[in-house]
Design a protein that fits this description.
The complex is a heterodimer. By secondary structure, chain A is mainly beta. Chain A has one helix at 23-30, and strands spanning 34-39, 45-46, 61-66, 69-78, 92-99, 104-110, 122-129, 135-141. Chain A folds into 2 domains: 18-66, no CATH class; 67-142, OB fold (Dihydrolipoamide Acetyltransferase, E2P). The longest helix of chain A has 8 residues, at 23-30. Chain B has helices spanning 27-42, 62-69, 86-99, 120-123, 131-137, 145-160, 164-179, 192-197, 225-228, 262-274, 291-300, 309-312, 331-335, 341-352, and strands spanning 9-16, 51-54, 76-77, 105-113, 200-203, 205-206, 215-224, 236-244, 283-285, 365-372, 376-384. Classes of the chains: A mainly beta, B alpha/beta. Chains A and B meet through strand 4, strand 5, strand 6 and strand 8 of A and helix 4, helix 5, helix 6 and strand 5 of B. The complex binds zinc ion. Zinc ion binds at residues 39, 41-42, 44, 53, 55-56, 58 of chain A.
Chain lengths: 142, 386
């Protein structure tokens, strides 16, 4: 796990600080692709990116483009902005999604009413560039 | 075979400061004030302390204890980096230290300025174990434990029919208990309606589902049982103690079952060590960072089946005089937030029969849990051995 220090809190948008392990994931985001880490030894997918496969202990891996569909595992609706950056968008839904690719992704779900939320609902991941380097994921109804 | 740690260590001293919102004192000063109170409660001198486990971050480190308390020969300095599971897990570490003969008296101490100092959204990122959350979840607007745990609560509701009425019951009963204790932040009654009308934080959690931000200090001393027997207060022994770590420990999102965490592994081990089961527990102090967290833990502790925690808390069952009184001091929800060391203090008081108006009649055996850091768990089972 990275121990990169995180900057002091401000009202600025919190942004990811990629590590040597996670850089290909964030590069993929920037290019509009969901890139997931696969073990070169046993082929299993893992997320979030890390150096060793917990199944076969191989340290070799490759990143492959993954399908962007999935189903809602659970969700929350964030009302209180713990970081002031999010004050403008609150309340916003964050869906935890079982991706068809076999991992979970947590991201905002847009264009869906709270009343229509349910476990198993199909959603699709999309990409939102926030600056030159960083693109973040979000979900829309599928 | 009896486990070698079973009842070889005891909680010999307890101490706490006033729990407030606002203090001119530093976290270190609060931690030391509580430590001196715990040392006096045990009838020891600060010179007798030869092991320290400070809660980090928030107060001081071992060096501060040596410098302030004049400790002549500190033999053990530990951090237990498990967030809200730290304090109860520290009891296991301390019990091991005294049982092995490395130490005689280990001090576990918390000092926190959660209200007047740094708030939750800033603290999160001081922990290396939250690096994954900082990288992958904070940028998409999932920041605070209230948000991260809300997803588990929502899933429990969807799968098992748990409702916010169940959450409210935990908040209301905990407040009733707090009112019986003179040293609490929240001392006015709370109704179900007030709970339901409180502002939404992160659905399904409302304000009164969330623990307090407060200032305060708490301390506990763990001694070898043969030494504790001769100290000031009735003997309270550690029958069983354990910590547990979940799958995907730094990310709830990637955990196969969001509702299974470290306590699921720790609880059976602690019961086994203690030689007791859920039916033997007279009183339970359950880490209550959120109302739902209590419901979830009651299931993992075996008081009810998975999914039945909501109905379990109803009908007076968890109140004083009920089948399983919980959080008899007011917990993190209503007393104060010293990372659950106040839960250990309260259980010790109950077993010493010092709990005043909140005393559970004839309490002989009780348990206390810790929960934190995205799902680490800890549990201690204590017994009145006096
Ligand atoms: Zn592998």
């Amino acid at each position: 796990m990275s121990t990169t220090p995180v900057a002091a809190p401000t009202s600025e948008r919190p942004l990811p600080i990629p590590t040597r392990e996670s850089q290909p994931y964030w590069d993929g985001m920037r290019e509009g692709r969901l890139m997931l880490q696969h073990c070169a030894g046993c082929g299993k997918v893992r997320h979030y990116p890390r150096p060793v496969c917990p199944h076969c202990f191989s340290m070799e891996s490759t990143f492959k483009k993954a399908p962007t569909g999935g189903t809602i595992h659970t969700w929350t609706v964030c009302h209180h902005p713990f970081n002031f950056f999010f004050k403008a968008s609150a309340p916003y839904i964050v869906a935890l999604v079982d991706m068809d690719a076999g991992v979970r992704v947590n991201a905002p779900l847009r264009g869906v009413n709270e009343a229509d939320l349910k476990i198993g609902k199909r959603v699709r991941l999309d990409f939102e560039p926030v600056n030159k380097e960083v693109t973040l994921p979000f979900f829309v109804s599928d | 075979m009896v486990h070698p740690l079973r009842e070889t260590a005891a909680v010999s001293g307890i101490g706490e400061t006033a729990y407030t919102r606002g203090t001119p004192k530093s976290g270190l000063a609060l931690q030391l004030e509580a430590s001196l109170a715990a040392i006096a409660d045990a009838g020891l001198s600060p010179r007798d302390i030869d092991g320290v486990v400070p809660y980090f971050p928030g107060g001081g480190i071992a060096e501060d204890f040596i410098a302030n308390l004049g400790l002549p020969d500190l033999k053990l300095s530990l951090f237990v980096p498990m967030g809200g599971a730290t304090c109860v897990a520290a009891i296991q570490s301390a019990a091991m230290a005294v049982a092995s003969g490395v130490c005689n008296h280990v001090l576990i101490a918390v000092g926190r300025t959660g209200y007047s100092g740094a708030r939750v959204s800033t603290r999160l990122q001081q922990f290396p174990q939250f690096a994954l959350a900082a990288e992958f979840e904070a940028p998409i607007g999932m920041f605070a434990p209230a948000q991260l745990y809300a997803q588990g609560a929502r899933r429990h509701m969807a799968l098992y029919g748990t409702t916010t009425r169940h959450f409210a019951e935990v908040a209301v009963v905990t407040r009733q208990h707090a009112i019986l204790n003179g040293n609490v932040v929240m001392n006015k009654p709370l109704t179900v309606e007030e709970h339901h009308a409180s502002r939404m934080i992160s659905d399904p959690f409302r304000l009164f589902d969330c623990s307090l931000e407060s200032d305060g200090g708490a301390a506990v001393i763990v001694s070898r049982t043969d030494r504790a027997r001769d100290l000031r207060k009735p003997l309270v022994t550690i029958m069983g103690v354990a910590e547990g770590h979940p799958e995907s420990p730094a990310s709830i999102a990637q955990r196969p079952d969001l509702l299974e965490f470290g306590l699921a592994k720790a609880a059976p081990r602690a019961y086994d060590m203690a030689g007791v089961g859920p039916r033997d527990i007279d009183v339970a102090e359950i880490y209550d960072c959120f109302t739902f967290t209590v419901i979830n833990q009651l299931e993992l502790l075996g008081f009810c089946k998975k999914g039945e925690g909501g109905p379990f808390v109803m009908d007076g069952r968890i109140g004083l005089g009920g089948e399983l009184p919980i959080n008899t001091h007011g917990g993190l929800l209503s007393q104060g937030h010293v990372v659950g060391l106040n839960h250990v203090i309260e259980l010790t008081r109950q077993l010493r029969r010092e709990a005043g108006r909140a005393q559970v009649k004839d309490a002989e055996v009780g348990l206390v849990t810790g929960y934190g850091d995205m799902g680490d768990g800890s549990i201690a089972i204590l017994r009145r051995a006096a």
